[in-house]
Each structure stands twice: as C-alpha cells, then as structure tokens.
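If you are new to this repository, start here. Below is one unmodified record pulled from the training split, so you can see the exact layout before writing a loader.
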Amino acid sequence: MIVKLLSSQIPTFWNAIKFGASQADEVDEKDLPPYLNEMLHALLGDKAQCFVALDDDRVLIGLLVTRVQVDKITNDKYLLLQAAYAWKKSDMSKWTEMYNAFRAFAEKEKCKYILFSSRNPKMWSRPEALGFKEKTRTFTLNLV
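And here is the target side for that same chain:
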C-alpha cells in the first residue's frame, strides 16, 4: 500500500524519513544537520511531500520524498523525486504502485514532467522500466 503522508504525520515517521532520505541522497555527515532541518521544514510546511510504502502488515518498507518545483527558465511546473529509499527489496509491482501514486499526484498538481536523479546505478533501471528517459549526467570535481 502506498500512502501520501499528511504534514501532521511527519513527526511520527521522522526517524525513518531522515534515515532513508540521507541514505538515498548520500548526504555527507558534515552537511546532515542543515539538510535535515531544511527537509523537516519543507515537509511540515507542505513544500515537500513524503510517500511511504507499507507491506500487508502495515510495516514501512520504503519511502519517497517529492517536491513540486518550477523551472526558472521555462516556467514549467514539475515534480522532483528527491529521495527514494527501500528497506526491503521490492519487486517491480511495488515500484509501479509507487509510480502510479506520485504520477497521480503530479497530474493533480498540473506538473508538466517528473524529474528523478540518482547516483546509485542499481536505481537507474527502475525509472527506465517505468518510461523515464535519461536527460543529462552531472559531473563534479572537488577543489578542496
């Protein structure tokens, strides 16, 4: 079962959200406090959304944090999939169920597209199987 949490439910799930999101987004330890503070503020203020996947026993098996954003150049509204994390390996049917939930949310919000990025090569096949296409690659060079 996929559930979109209400902002009032965020404190109940906060420990799981902060663990899953920081793992999915691979946040450095030194950057964790401001990252988590911003995320909590966004979730409590309905600037970000959290979808959770529950198994048949209503045990948390995965989560996804999303944000409705606007492209500064094109002015297109889109749904950013920020953090996808699973505690248990799920078959494609669970991923499809999650996809249907956030796609319905994106359509309700009148988003033009959905954007997802991940550094984890194991995650790349999931969105491709759901129809996502690679748009760009990002490279970084640390100077310090």
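Two things worth knowing about this chain: The chain is about 40% helix and 25% strand. The two ends are 45 Å apart (CA to CA).
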